[in-house]
Design a protein that fits this description.
The chain is mainly alpha-helical. It has 19 helices and no strands. It has 2 domains: 185 residues, MFS general substrate transporter like domains (Growth Hormone, Chain: A); 203 residues, Growth Hormone, Chain: A. The radius of gyration is 21 Å and the shape is globular.
């Protein structure tokens, strides 16, 4: 297909799916005050309700990945979007915490294939050299969805309540399912045949092959925990931090969330462009990822130290820099055989979203160790401790990467990476 056809028939429909998934994933950050008031939720309950999306999303990853490699995204994505539409309708009619929890999980299950389908589709139709920038645009579409969950949602609440909002989201999911079913092309014959053979009953061994691949293991060790933190925190707790610690009004918090989510669009595109630019100069993408992770951890230290000079800047830079974590999808897509790209993306998603579930729910449990004030605001110390734990979790991967690349690793238990893949191998120096 021509480049224009690939954009219209492949990139655009699946990017819209990722857009909708990101919108629904982060919308609770804007709706948190309404949800807490309607159901009298504690921070732990709010974290569990919102993170149920991540848990269900993660559980969908392996079966969806196998289905993508066997049948292709054009056939897998529509029925899953219809399932998400059903979950959104159930959420709009939920009357207590348990009903909303189940409905939220159903939404996560239905949207579990959106990003993977997009990755599989673009990796099938786009040249490998162009994948970092194209996947950057894909992540930018998700950033646009997250941005739409802030100010646009707040404006929509002037005309409807959160229940009516979810009715509209259900209708959008159903319409997108129809669009993909009508316009998205099937995988080319060569890709289909290889995918079919890859989806034989011995699929567990194939997944083991993905987990054992040197490129997968290296990038997972370095980027996965920061990616978990980025998804788990920016989708909920940044908004509560801005309210509880920075003391901003609900309208100001929504505006800052909008700026932060909009920054994801520019950050994702910039990461793709920087990665390609660095690659032309012999710098491996995993080295770009390491630099980005180090900067992301430095930003989080601002939360730990309660860096008061600019709380607004800190919240926006967190989401801007956090987009670097999406680079691991491009590295894995470049490194694995075409028949494994779907399962490679799902293995990443499985681990990332399980971790995001734990980060989001665990953060709320840590906050719950402190007592709120009369306005239900939690003290700055609670957030400092919670962010401090996250920083410690991320430093290990960065330290191991630095020791492997520039230090002397111990001989016992050392893992070497002699694959020679350009996506993960360091440049040759003279």
């Amino acid at each position: 297909m021509s480049g224009r056809a690939v954009f219209v028939l492949v990139f655009l429909p699946f990017a819209l799916g990722h857009y909708l998934s990101s919108l629904i994933r982060t919308v609770n950050a804007t709706l948190a005050p309404q949800l807490m008031a309607a159901l009298a939720l504690t921070p732990g309950q709010l974290g569990l309700l919102t993170s149920a999306f991540f848990l269900a999303f993660a559980l969908a990853q392996l079966p969806v990945g196998m289905a993508l490699d066997r049948w292709g995204p054009a056939r897998v994505q529509p029925p899953m979007l219809l399932l998400a539409a059903l979950g959104a309708l159930a959420f709009s009619g939920g009357r207590d915490f348990a009903e909303l929890l189940v409905a939220r999980a159903l939404i996560g299950l239905g949207l579990g294939g959106c990003f993977m389908s997009a990755v599989k589709a673009v990796s099938t139709w786009v040249a490998p050299a162009r994948l970092p920038s194209v996947q950057g645009y894909l992540i930018a579409a998700g950033g646009l969805g997250a941005a739409s969950a802030t100010l646009p949602v707040r404006l929509a609440l002037h005309y409807t309540d959160w229940r009516g909002l979810f009715v509209g989201l259900a209708a959008a999911a159903a319409c997108l399912a129809l669009l993909i079913r009508l316009v998205a092309p099937s995988a080319p014959p060569s890709s289909s045949s290889s995918s079919s053979s890859a989806a034989r009953p011995a699929s567990v061994s194939v997944l083991r092959e993905v987990f054992r691949h040197p490129a997968f293991r290296e990038v997972a060790q370095l980027v996965m925990v920061p990616h978990m933190v980025f998804f788990g925190i920016q989708g909920l707790w940044i908004s509560r931090w801005l309210s509880d610690v920075a003391g901003f009004s609900e309208a100001a918090v929504t505006y800052l969330l909008y700026l932060g989510m909009a920054a994801v669009i520019f950050g994702a595109i910039a990461v793709g462009m920087i990665t390609e630019w660095a690659g032309r100069r012999g710098v491996a993408p995993v080295s770009v990822a390491a630099a980005g992770v180090a900067l992301f951890i430095a930003v989080q230290l601002g939360f730990v130290l309660n860096w008061a000079p600019s709380f607004q800047l800190l919240s926006v830079v967190f989401t801007l820099v956090g987009t670097v974590t999406g680079i691991e999808y491009a590295i894995v897509a470049q490194s694995l055989p075409p028949s494994l790209t779907g399962r490679g993306a799902t293995c990443l998603n499985l681990l990332i979203f399980l971790g995001a579930f734990a980060m989001q729910a665990g953060f709320g449990l840590v906050l719950g160790c402190w007592r709120p004030d009369a306005l239900q605001h939690y003290p700055a110390q609670a957030y400092q401790v919670a962010f401090g734990v996250l920083v410690l979790l991320q430093l290990r991967g960065l330290f191991l990467f630095a020791r492997r690349r520039w230090g002397t690793a111990p001989q016992s238990g050392r893992i070497d990476y002699p694959s020679g893949n350009p996506a993960t191998s360091p440049p040759i120096t003279r």
